[in-house]
Amino acid sequence: MEEYNVAVIPGDGIGTEVIAEGIKVLKKVAELDGRFAFSFEYFPWGCEYFCKTGKVMDDDGLERLSKFDTIYLGAVGAPNVPDHISLRDLLIKIRQGFDQYVNLRPIKLLNGVPCPIKGVRREDVNMVVVRENSEGEYAGAGDWLYKGKEQEVVLQTSVFSRKGTERIIRYAYELARREKKTITSISKGNALNYSMVFWDEIFRDVGKEYPDVRQYTYLVDAAAMFFVKDPARFQVVVTSNLFGDILTDLGAAIAGGMGLAAGANINPDKKYPSMFEPIHGSAPDIAGRGVANPMAAIWSASQMLEFFGKKVWSNKLILAMEKILTEKTVLTADFGGSASTEEVGAEIIRQMILL
């Protein structure tokens, strides 16, 4: 029997609530299949931990996480901790430390989910954004000079290496070829005359090796417009760290909201653990009330299953969510229902068993 060791970082706010449902789902999947199992070890890191210890994550955190197959993250963030501390000292630290250079964000309008854009068919919203996840605008390079003085200057330097840019673009091309889809590169080469011109050139050069893949390029402002006006033109999208971060939240809004927004941080070589997370944040305003939507966390669990090669179970989870969203009897408040987090999780398991 295969055993997958998962490090669990429930984090803050609703993270603890939604991750609990995702773990129930993973345990049930393993039980039903009978050929693999999960073991979970919990880590208390996050903003609450920071308030107690002065650290978002322990100094040896990466070393301790390195022995696991994957990481399952809930959410990190709290009103009394600056966002740049919680983000950089845990999430970005893990992404960069474990070379999780691929961020995969599915943007798919599931059955039963209303689209806020009139005239858009369900099949028109079905893309995956491949976001560079290790460098670019989030490299953390720069300086803060003459702080507090009249001549104060801040420098935030984007870092685009040939290795980093080429490997994320190649990953996206391979995905597009494998799934027989188009690929669209999104940049801003007309204004960012070094980094994005460099990106565009590499996209074209790598594209010569994939003549069977239909290729498109858009400036990020035009792409944002077409995400709303004509999402059907996008299938596989590849873009930089910052642009991917922004566009995928826009995509989540098109596809039903943050309650369905899942993300995977992948180290394709599997030298280090990959990390799976809902991306809706800690939502402190509803934390502790048991009303958070667990579907994004469960969708990210589905991504984990696919990462482990359990595509059949991954698909069943999505189908189970679609069944619930279509029947509209067990839904949380963000989809017009009154069910609790635990009730939705239990219903997803029930529907999955019936499939």
From TrEMBL:
Single Gene Ontology MF annotation: tartrate decarboxylase activity
InterPro entries (alphabetical): ICDH/IPMDH (IPR050501), IsoCit/isopropylmalate_DH_CS (IPR019818), IsoPropMal-DH-like_dom (IPR024084), TTC_DH (IPR011829)
Keyword presence, Signal: no
Pfam families registered for this protein in UniProt: Iso_dh
Top-level taxon in the UniProt lineage: Bacteria
Family: Belongs to the isocitrate and isopropylmalate dehydrogenases family.
Name under which the protein is recorded: D-malate dehydrogenase (decarboxylating)
Organism name: Pectinatus haikarae
